[in-house]
Write a structure and sequence with these properties.
By secondary structure, the chain is of the alpha+beta class. It has helices at about 30, 55-65, 75-90, 135-140, 165-175, 215, 220-235, 245-250, 280-295; strands at about 10, 15, 35, 40-45, 50, 95-105, 120-125, 140-150, 180-185, 190-195, 200-205, 205-210, 240, 255-260, 260-270, 270-275, 305. The longest helix has 14 residues, at about 55-65. The chain starts with 7 loop residues before the first strand and ends with a strand.
């Protein structure tokens, strides 16, 4: 999905013009993938533009950096303020996507990342839902990828790390070339892990099920947690349970969640229709509640909103 340039990007404490946000070709992260990032959304509300679960995203960014042994030269509070500032100065009142990135810059070359300088950037741009507006309404088709998700003892799947997403890109390209919208990766033990950039849920006999992150090598999703909270509050039982591919085939409903993809129904897995092939009642209600929540329409969840002054 093409990016529409905006005016300013925050880089190491300064706002620079979009076209001037550059790094050196010998930056360590470019060569070795040592870096961490977040995807965050801001939505229009009756009170103005609001960043959704900003504090949680920045804290996960810092946790990812800690796992990767990267010392971020800014505090959580500073990065929260910087992210809100980027959203504000670019004037995207109809909503935007925000991308904080912690990366290692130009310094020593080689696999040892420790001597490399640490940099932080925050960019923003208007971005529709990742898999397309039509996907929100009618769902997507997915395939089980031939690529396995990282084993959590081979690479730290709890970190949202730059280099980890080569795995996702390979699976995504395979799915697209096969005529599907998205891919599902299996864990090293053959159980369901997650999609290329989203967590996955199924509904079975009225219960909402999603793979356990520690066992399946999935990233703990903030949108995933949001949806689980909404489901419990509407009286739906939620369980983290190991799933195999046939659980997806036989599910009553299925959907994926992520900041970029929001809450997107799944209509088919490996050419097998899921349920009736249209968004089911639990999926549809959770999607409705999710968009009401991020737009500030439900007082119960307004603590998740960071208003941009």
């Amino acid at each position: 999905m093409p990016i529409t340039p905006t005016q300013k990007i925050w880089m190491d404490g300064e706002l620079v013009d979009w076209a001037d946000a550059k790094i050196h070709v010998l930056s360590h992260t470019l060569h070795y993938g040592s870096g961490v990032f977040e995807g965050i959304r801001a939505y229009p509300t009756a009170q103005g533009l609001a960043v959704f679960r900003l504090d949680d995203h920045i804290r996960r960014l810092m946790a990812s950096a800690h796992i990767m042994m990267i010392d971020v030269p800014y505090s959580v509070e500073q990065l929260i303020g910087a992210t809100a500032e980027v959203a504000r100065v670019n004037g995207l009142q109809d909503g935007c996507y925000l991308r904080p990135l912690v990366y290692l810059g130009y310094g020593e070359m080689g696999l040892n990342p420790l001597p490399a300088p640490v940099h932080v950037s925050i960019a923003t741009w208007p971005w529709g839902t990742y898999l397309g507006e039509e996907a929100l309404e009618r769902g997507v088709s997915v395939k089980i990828s031939s690529w396995r998700r990282h084993d959590p003892n081979a690479a730290p799947t709890a970190a949202k790390s730059v280099g980890m997403y080569v795995n996702s890109s390979l699976a995504k390209v395979e799915a697209l070339k096969g005529g599907y919208d998205e891919a599902v990766l299996l864990a090293s033990d053959g159980r369901v892990s997650e999609c290329t950039g989203e967590n996955i849920f199924i509904v079975r006999d009225g219960v909402l099920l999603t793979p356990p992150s520690s066992d399946a090598g999935t990233l703990d999703g903030i949108t995933q947690d949001t949806v689980e909270t909404l489901a419990r509050d509407m009286g739906v039982e939620v369980r983290h349970e190991a799933l195999i591919r046939t659980d997806l085939y036989l599910a009553d409903e299925a959907f994926l969640t992520g900041t970029a993809a929001e809450l997107t129904p799944i209509r088919a897995v490996d050419d097998r229709t899921v349920g009736a092939g249209t968004p089911g009642p639990v999926t549809a209600e959770l999607q409705r509640l999710y968009f009401s929540t991020v737009r500030g329409e439900l007082d119960r969840y307004k603590d998740w909103l960071h208003l941009v002054d």
